[in-house]
Description:
Elements (H helix, E strand, L loop, with lengths): L1 E9 L4 E7 L3 E5 L6 H16 L6 E8 L5 E8 L23 E8 L2 E7 L2 E4 L2 E2 L9 H4 L7 H7 L2 E5 L15 H7 L3 H6 L4 H11 L1 H14 L5 E5 L15 E6 L2 E4 L5 H15 L5 E5 L7 H13 L5 E6 L2 H6 L5 E7 L2 E6 L9 H9 L2 H5 L1 E2 L2
Parallel strand pairs: 2-17, 3-15, 3-16, 10-14, 14-15, 16-18
Antiparallel strand pairs: 1-2, 1-4, 4-5, 5-6, 6-7, 7-8, 8-9, 11-12, 12-13, 16-17
Amino acid sequence: MKINSLRFQDTFQSWGFEKINFFNLTLLVGISGVGKTQILKGILGVKDIASGKSLNGIKWHIEFETFNQSNYKWEGEFEKLENKSFVHYLRNEEDNKLKPKILIEKLFLNNDLIVEKKDGTIYFESKKMPKLSFEKSLISIFKEEEKIKPAYNAFKKIVFRDHTNKEEILELYSLIDINLLKQKYKTLKEIQESDLDTNIKLACVYDNLPDIFAKIKDSFISIFEQVEDVKIAPIEDNNLPSFYLDEPILQIKEKGIWISQNRISSGMLRTFLHISEMLLWSKGTVILIDEFENSLGVNCIDILTEDLIFENDQIQFIATSHHPYIINKIPYEYWKIINRKGGQISTYDAKDFKLGDSRHERFMNLINLPKYQEGIATN
């Protein structure tokens, strides 16, 4: 999937943004509180709608493409329920009778209207359908139809990474038979295309694809030169509970001593996760990264931003940052300048401004640009 553009309005919480055009790599830049994270939340909101969830007062228009050369346009609007006790994101609670209904919705494939909701009726390829849910999106309802299934699957490839929170890479698998999964997913393509969490993918790679794991390990060690080796294996400790002894755990070796995941710094864990996922995400994945720089050292930022630049032909990245090094590192033609007036978020392409020739000059001119400096206006 590649998101080409999105327009999003939340009339219940009174915020939104006009049409934003996205690149294969888009860096959202602006002062804190200007709305960078809200743009990512808008994308996640549309993903929720595609999965069948009800979002109160949401209006959206998204244009995206899949890797089978299909171009989709999808738009719609939920009613706004004013009940102050209403939970904004209902997420399919079956016992809640306050679910908002979709007032109007259209899905286009290669500019042809294939399904729509209007005037209380659903039409599929111009044919009137029997009464179906108006609380769920058309993509969710018709997800098994040949023309709509690729769109439904495309939204499942949107992944959110929040580097403001500590991310655990490998968790206990007490309810999962890891050995069965290792037998099922043996090739890189099978692992990439699976819906497995990254932690399980890594366990499969470690046992089945030693060359791929070596590539991950070598990249990690090139950043943290004090690391001598990396493995994903049960911890050899007779003092641990028996159920823990068979669990594959990330471990790094420093000065001849193996260090288990719980004693590895959060920055190193995030870096290992990022390097791994760059190889293990499938073609067409859309990665949303909030505050990319948080808890990463300068040496990590250097290498990982290069990954964003050079790996963006098959994977789309939409990231937020206000870190000077990251903004400097990523070419300015990928920058989107964000500002906000009240609840309305606006974006501007940095390449439309005369920011200079060198990276340093462009960054200095960026932070002195009126659109950047004004940041947030109250009206």
